[in-house]
Structure formats: C-alpha cells, structure tokens
C-alpha cells in the first residue's frame, strides 16, 4: 500500500512540479507586502523599543536642577546673641579698661532664604531592585511572543496562498477542458445539421446537439467566472490589484515527499504556550520581588550661595543611599501571587490539550492527503478509460454503427472524467498544503 501511495505521489509531483518556482516567488511577495504582516512587524518593533526602555532602567539618571528664592517675612529663628555675649563682653571691657568688645544685638533670621540660589547635578541609580530585573525579562519574552505570533500568521498565509494558487490552476484547467468540449460539441452540431439536411438523422439529434452547445457554453462561462474569482482572491492575499495576471511556471521541479513523519512538537502554537508559561513564571517572581527591599544611591554636585556669589565655599556635594522595604500591604501581593499560580496551572493544561489537537490535525490532514491521492489515481484511470470509450464510439458513429445518444453519452463521460481528474489532482495538492501547515514543514527564507 505504501509503495502504491509513493507511486501516486511521484505522478502527482510530475503533474504539478512546474508550479512551485513561481509559487515560491509569489509567497515571497506576499510575505513582503501583506498588510497584516506589516502590522505584526510594527508590534514587534514596539516590543523591541519597550525592551530597550526596560534595559535603560539599570543605568543612572542624571539631571541638572537649579533654583532661586526671594523671600521676605514669614517665620523666623530668634538667636539671642546679645543676651549671651554682652555680659561677657562688658566684663572683658572692664578688665582691659577698653571698649574693644562691642555690644551685640539679638538676631532674627528668616527661615525662607532670601536672594538664595542653588544649582546642582543630581544623579540617582538603582543598586538593588528585583522589579526592574524581572521587568526586563518579561519584556524580552513579550518580544519573543510577538515574533512567534508573526510566524503563526505567516504559516496560515502561506497555506492560504498555496490553496488559492492551486484552485486558480484548477480553474484554468477547467476552462481548457470546457473549451475543448465546446469545440467538440460545436463540430457535432455542424455534422448533425448537415446530416439532417441530407435526411440521414432526425430532428431530435439536431435539437440535442444544439442544447449541448448551449449547455457547454454556459458551463464554460461559469468556469471563467470561477477562475476570475480565484485570481482575484489570490491577488488579494498578495496585496496587489485584483485583476493582476498570475504567471504560471512551465519548468519542472522536484518537491519533497508528501509522506512525512509527524513533527507537531515544533509547531509555533506550542512554542507560544511554552513562552507564555515562562513569562508567567517571571510574573510570579516579579510579584514575589515586592517582598524584598530596594536599594538605590544618589549624589548631588553643585553650588549654592546668597546674592549670586560664587567662591570656593559655594561648592558642595551631597550623597547617600536610599532603602525601601515594604513591610505590610494588606496581603495584596499574596493574593496576586495566588492568581498567577492559577494562570500557571491553566497554561499547563492548555499545553497538554493543544498537543493532542495538533497531533489530531496532522493525522487528519495526512489521511486526507492519502485519500485524495487514491481518488486522483482512480479518476486518472477513469479518464483513460473514458477517452478510449469516447474514441471507439466516435469511430462507430462516423461509420454509422452508433446513434448520437451513444456518442453524446461517451463525450459527456470523457468531459466529466477530465473534470474529475483535474479536481482530484489539485485537491491532492490542496491536501498537501494543509498537511504541510499541520506539520509546520515549510521553511522560511
């Protein structure tokens, strides 16, 4: 059975290998021009900038600060200099018999500095802060998630492009079959009209041949409209004008075997869930980090003085450390951590479920491909038999040994057999594209 299926695949590749070169080119164009992909790239770029923002939190922050104050009135500080020193000064004047020590007045100093300026360079830097550490890790994983989501969309888009391309080829072949059938029934119509004029056949055969021309013409027109719709949808996926002509490559090209082992473990959907699980673990660590202290340092270098004086005494520096430790917050972090733990359990359950779904999807698509190949083989044999039967009946009809109904039946069988073989041929490639998507085997350039 396997050898037979491999033979069918080789036949299938021989029929459709020519289309792959142009198809690969169209896929490349679509990945470049698709608007949704552009939007995903914008999101990725945004995530990259957010990651750089998170990294910048590790570096010091430096700012230039300046202030000038002008004050009058308000609270004061009373300094009793006179009350404290004048008795001492009087005693000294008496001892020295002089007035060398003057009488001092009590002082009153404004709390608000008047005509005072302060200019400094203020620098702060985190020394120990688990929050920004885990925040950076989370931003990194969010960026990775954006890239994985882009790959998921790209694979879906590639599958849709391939299916649309095969359906367009299918419609072109359908048009060709109907055009050949129309030429055949038109010739039958001409012959029957000639035979009727010579009283060789009755009017029934003439009417039937006329109806066949009308029926095939209508089917041909329908096939053309189906082809136009298929072309429009294909161009839509490529983000180009809907009526753009689609190029068909006539060169043969070998393709990998369609019979492949399941490799759903590499599906981006699983990678995404694994990444979400890791991200949730970092969210848990971020929540726990609120129980640890944060330590930061600061330093000021500047000048300050009254009346805009600048001298060596105006210069100063001021540095220190800041410690913050959250002692109690109403168990807020504890409850938040419980929520994160439930999310982790949910993600683990989703991973197990998705693994089974992806495996089922691959097996179904592989079985569909095998079924499509068997149907193609049967239709191909039926096509060969119908051609032989049509050739035989046509020969007998020309010799007058068969009636027109027999000829018409043979021709209809021949046309239908061609249509069925064409449908099953491209349905096989559509099934191949679906299996390729289910197994994530398409390789991006």
TrEMBL record:
It is found in: Cell outer membrane. GO terms for molecular function: efflux transmembrane transporter activity; porin activity. Residues 337-375 form a coiled coil. It comes from the Bacteria. It holds the Pfam family OEP. GO terms for cellular component: cell outer membrane; efflux pump complex. Transmembrane segments: none annotated. Its main location: membrane. The keyword Coiled coil applies. InterPro entries: OMP_efflux, TolC-like. Keywords: Cell outer membrane, Coiled coil, Membrane, Transmembrane, Transmembrane beta strand, Transport. PANTHER family: OUTER MEMBRANE PROTEIN TOLC (PTHR30026:SF20). Belongs to the outer membrane factor (OMF) (TC 1.B.17) family. This is Transporter. It comes from Flavobacterium commune.
């Amino acid at each position: 059975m396997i050898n037979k299926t491999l033979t069918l695949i080789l036949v299938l590749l021989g029929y459709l290998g020519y289309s792959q070169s142009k198809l690969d080119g169209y896929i490349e164009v679509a990945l470049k021009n698709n608007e949704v992909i552009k939007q995903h790239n914008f999101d990725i770029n945004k995530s990259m900038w957010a990651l750089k923002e998170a990294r910048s939190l590790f570096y010091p922050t430096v700012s230039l600060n300046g202030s000038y104050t002008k004050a009058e009135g308000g609270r004061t500080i009373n300094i009793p200099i006179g009350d404290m020193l004048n008795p001492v000064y009087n005693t000294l004047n008496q001892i020295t018999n002089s007035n060398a020590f003057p009488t001092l007045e009590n002082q009153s100093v404004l709390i608000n500095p008047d005509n005072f300026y302060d200019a400094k360079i203020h620098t702060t830097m985190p020394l120990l802060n688990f929050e920004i550490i885990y925040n950076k890790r989370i931003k990194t994983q969010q960026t990775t998630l954006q890239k994985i989501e882009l790959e998921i969309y790209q694979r879906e888009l590639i599958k849709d492009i391939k299916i649309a391309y095969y359906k367009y080829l299918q419609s072109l072949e359908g048009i060709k079959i109907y055009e050949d059938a129309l030429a055949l029934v038109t010739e039958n119509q001409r012959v029957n009209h000639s035979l009727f004029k010579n009283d060789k056949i009755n009017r029934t055969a003439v009417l039937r041949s006329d109806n066949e021309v009308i029926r095939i013409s209508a089917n041909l027109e329908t096939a053309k409209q189906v082809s136009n719709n298929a072309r429009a949808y294909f161009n839509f996926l490529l983000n180009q004008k809907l009526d753009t002509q689609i190029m068909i490559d006539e060169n043969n090209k070998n393709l990998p075997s369609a019979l492949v082992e399941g490799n759903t473990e590499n599906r981006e959907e699983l990678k995404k869930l694994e990444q979400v699980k890791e991200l949730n673990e970092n969210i848990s660590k971020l929540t726990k980090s609120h129980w640890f202290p944060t330590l930061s340092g600061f330093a000021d270098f500047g000048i300050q003085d009254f009346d805009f004086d600048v001298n060596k005494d105006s210069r100063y520096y001021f540095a220190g450390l800041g410690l913050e430790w959250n002692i109690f917050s109403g168990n807020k972090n504890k409850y938040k951590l419980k929520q994160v733990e439930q999310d982790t359990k949910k993600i683990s359950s989703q991973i197990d479920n998705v693994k089974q779904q992806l495996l089922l999807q691959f097996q179904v698509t592989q079985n569909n491909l095998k079924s499509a190949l068997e149907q193609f083989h049967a239709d191909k044999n039926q096509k060969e038999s119908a051609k032989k039967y049509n050739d035989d009946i046509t020969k007998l009809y020309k010799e007058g040994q068969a009636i027109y109904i027999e000829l018409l039946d043979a021709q209809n069988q021949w046309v239908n057999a061609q249509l069925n073989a064409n449908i099953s041929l491209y349905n096989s490639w559509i099934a191949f594209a679906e299996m390729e998507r289910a197994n994530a085997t398409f390789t991006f350039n």
